[in-house]
Specification:
EC 1.1.1.49; single chain; alpha/beta; six-stranded parallel β-sheet; 481 residues; carbohydrate metabolism; binds 6-O-phosphono-beta-D-glucopyranose; G6P_DH; 16 helices; G6P_DH_AS
Length: 481
């Protein structure tokens, strides 16, 4: 697919996301000839750097993953402008630089703290950089609650209209998440069973082994609910639970997701104690190495920010009545794994005797990362003459084995979607609002309760209360690691 020449400006150009995700993604698109030669990538931050200094910094960050010769070629298309969103200095020069290519698609990627979104947008508007083929990308989380999100969206909306505004949730760019759409709506097999008559419950796990590292300043103000649940996990839940959209048109998909968000049953002070568990990691052993606890990593032993959340969500509509969606996410957990596990109801009557072994419920597991793939757990007969012995085994499809290609990073797909102006995999304003409307009362309930998050050892599966949360319902967390 061809790509129009574009300028992509990254505010927060010296930050973690730019070096770890955005620039590598653009480099890979460059290798695939999707970075037209006149296109420019412009890093913007407060540091006093010039083009050469920025390129040298990126070279150091990227050299481990890139071929040196091609990297240098790519870096010729990368520039840097020092700017402070709150000071005038440098903006005239920046505006002239961007204005020099009036026909380019312009993408302003705001990879900064959300508090700066408004200042940056006002300045872009002041210089007329919101005109023509201009788009703005807002990184999550947008605000820290409904009110602050509304303030940001209102102010950004004064400068960029909704069709120019791309609220990114990189989980939607993951290949396996898009595959969920294909799996559900490209096969006749699943949809007739995709409801409360046949599905027992759904589990969504996003477990990380890393700690907060040097992102503490951001993370400590956010916590796992704002960082992962309000956006990534709810988006996954929507993809599992939404009604079939009539097409893949951006609003057809987003309308259906919105209905799911609106149907989430409230969790508030009355039931948060039963339906949610928050935790914070302590020192422990992660992937064979001793690691410090969150407080030590942060340099603030008093922090009561949660690094782990498990909760039981319910969707109050006809399709999903009575089907729990168990969500859990955390840092410094036992394994890095993101997956969606859909467990079906047991068969209504067993014709097998106890000696054959017990019947296990069918389960469809979509592994988002690592080892992307799909497993459908079935009951079969153990081969051989030893009588009827039941076995639970997966039909196992690994994407790497089946297609022999590595999965492109989510940002590769999403950045080009912005350049092309395709918002299907981005969050509309009303989705962000609906997600905050549901998450806000949970945050309020936690803060009103005055309870500290429960400690868990780094390298474990989180606080034991999260095991109790699901076991109370006679179920267990899926784990086939
Ligand atoms: C980001 C969060 O949005 O997603 C991080 O801010 C988290 O805290 C990351 O580590 C996880 O993304 P991925 O693609 O590595 O699963």
């Amino acid at each position: 697919q061809t790509v129009e020449p574009f300028d992509l400006v990254i505010f927060g150009g010296t930050g973690d996301l730019a070096a770890r995700k955005l620039l590598p993604a653009l480099f890979h698109r460059f290798l695939d000839h999707q970075l037209p030669p006149s296109s420019r990538i412009v890093g913007v931050a407060r540091e006093a750097l010039d083009d050469a200094g920025y390129r040298a910094q990126l070279r150091e960050a990227l050299i481990a993953i890139c071929d040196a010769r091609q990297l240098d070629e790519f870096l010729q298309q990368v520039f840097y402008r020092p700017l402070d969103a709150r000071k005038d200095e440098g903006w005239d020069d920046f505006a002239a630089f961007i204005g020099a290519e009036p026909d380019h698609v312009r993408v302003f990627y705001l990879s900064t703290s959300p508090e700066l979104f408004v200042d940056i947008c006002k300045r872009l508007g002041h210089y007329g950089l919101n005109q023509g083929k201009s788009r703005v990308v807002l990184e999550k989380p947008i605000g820290r609650d409904l009110d602050s999100a509304n303030r940001i969206n209102d102010a950004v909306g004064q400068v960029f209209d909704e069709t120019q505004t791309f609220r990114i949730d990189h989980y939607l760019g993951k290949e396996t998440v898009q595959n969920l759409l294909v799996l559900r709506f490209g096969n006749a097999l699943f949809e007739p069973l995709w409801n409360s008559a046949h599905i027992d419950h759904v589990q969504i796990t996003v477990a990380e082994t890393l700690g907060v590292g040097h992102r503490g300043a951001y993370y400590d103000r956010a916590g796992a609910l704002r960082d992962m649940v309000q956006n990534h996990m709810l988006q996954l839940l929507c993809m599992v639970a939404m009604e079939p959209p009539s097409s893949l048109a951006p609003d057809a998909v987003r309308d259906e997701k919105l209905k799911v968000l609106h149907s989430l049953k409230p969790i508030d002070a009355g039931n948060a104690g039963q339906l949610t568990v928050r935790g914070q990691y302590r020192a422990g052993v992660a992937e064979g190495a001793s690691v410090p606890g969150y407080g030590e990593e942060l340099g603030n032993a008093k922090s009561d920010t949660e690094t782990f959340v498990a909760l039981k969500a319910e969707i109050g509509n006809w399709r999903w009545a009575g089907v729990p969606f168990y969500l859990r996410t955390g840092k410094r957990l036992a394994h890095r794994v993101s997956e969606i596990a859909v467990t079906f109801k047991p068969v209504p009557h067993s014709i097998f005797d106890a000696a054959s072994g017990s019947l296990t419920q069918n389960r469809l597991v979509l592994r988002l990362q690592p080892d992307e793939g799909v497993k459908l757990w079935l009951t079969i007969k153990h081969p051989g003459p030893g009588g009827l012995r039941l076995r639970h085994v997966p039909l196992d499809m690994s994407f790497a084995e089946a297609f022999g290609v590595s999965q492109p990073d989510a940002y590769e797909r999403l950045l080009l979607d912005v350049v092309r102006g395709n918002p299907t995999l981005f969050m509309r304003r009303d989705e962000v609002e609906a997600a905050w409307r549901w998450a806000g009362p949970i945050l309020a309930a936690w803060s009103d309760s005055g309870e500290a998050p429960r400690p868990y050892a780094a390298g474990s599966w989180g606080p034991s209360a999260s095991v109790a949360l699901i076991e109370r319902d006679g179920r267990t967390w899926h784990d086939d690691n």
